[in-house]
Design goal:
single chain; alpha/beta
């Protein structure tokens, strides 16, 4: 089995619609794909309707968290999307995204960069607006060559010239909320140091003691040494070790299935979940549309 447990669609900051994402996953030879848009489950219904036969969808979200001033992302799988407390927290995070993005546009204007809110809103479309959309605007204007180049202290990186804080969930609270909604939690790309400061291993140990289920080990932002260190940490803490592409369509260079999760680990995730269950593709009418 080939299993990719971290992908994004136009419901947040990916460039593929949810339907295009699941069709692409099937074409890439995946057996299981997770849709984990930032702080939203809006793409799930479209992905399920278009799910090709032979492909299983894991519903989820990537939750924006912060601890001790360090930004981190928590992958949440197979939770009840209507559970009130977790739904309210996701809405708090999403509602803060628009004023944050507008404030970043204002800061860019102060620096002489002629980006407009209309441009960023066009790029975001129906998705949850975020820094990648502002970064794409900078690429369109020729300010930076790639989206990744915008995530530096000069521009949108944490603490950078254009960085604006937003509401982010305490990770211990995120674990509690996801567990209460019947879901499973995995700390996304914990060693992605090129994105900014990373959470110390001592805090990961505290998160494990609080109920964290796993850490994302095999990821494009982890080199071989980081993957080996994280795999050992997962073993020492009794955490599941996952792998995934963190696919964003054309917004990033990674491909669907670039990194994958061991089937036994996937099986354990599904065994732990009680809020929702993986959805097998039936190849219905929507799945057949190009």
């Amino acid at each position: 089995m080939r299993i990719d447990l971290h992908c994004h669609s136009t419901a947040s900051d990916g460039t593929d619609t949810p339907a295009e994402l699941v069709r692409g996953a099937a074409a890439a030879g995946l057996d299981v794909v997770a849709l984990t848009d930032h702080d939203t489950t809006r793409g799930h219904a479209e992905a399920i309707a278009a799910l090709p036969e032979g492909l299983t969808l894991v519903t989820g979200a990537e939750l924006s968290c912060r601890i001790d001033g360090i930004s981190m992302h928590m992958l949440a799988y197979l939770f009840d999307p209507e559970e009130p407390a977790l739904l309210a927290e996701r809405e708090l995070v999403r509602d803060d995204r628009v004023p944050r993005a507008r404030a970043m546009v204002a800061k860019l204007n102060e620096l002489g960069v002629p980006v407009s809110w209309e441009q960023v809103a066009r790029i975001a479309g129906d998705g949850s607006v975020g820094r990648p959309h502002v970064a794409t605007a900078l690429v369109e204007l020729g300010v930076v060559p790639t989206v990744s180049d915008a995530f530096t202290p000069d521009w949108l990186g944490d603490g950078g010239r254009v960085w604006i804080p937003k509401h982010e969930t305490d990770p211990f609270e995120a674990i509690r909320l996801v567990k209460a909604a019947g879901g499973v939690t995995v700390f996304a790309h914990p060693a992605a140091s090129k994105r900014g400061r990373t959470v110390p291993e001592s805090v990961i140990a505290e998160l494990a003691a609080a109920g964290l289920d796993g850490i994302e080990v095999d990821h494009m932002d982890h080199d071989a040494d980081a993957r080996a260190r994280l795999r050992g940490l997962a073993r020492d803490l009794g955490l599941l070790a996952t792998g995934s592409s963190d696919y964003h369509g054309s917004r990033k260079t990674c491909a669907l299935g670039e990194y994958t999760t061991d089937p036994e680990v996937y099986g354990e995730i599904t065994r732990r979940a009680t809020g929702a269950f993986p959805v097998p593709g039936t190849g219905g009418p929507e799945a057949l549309r190009a």
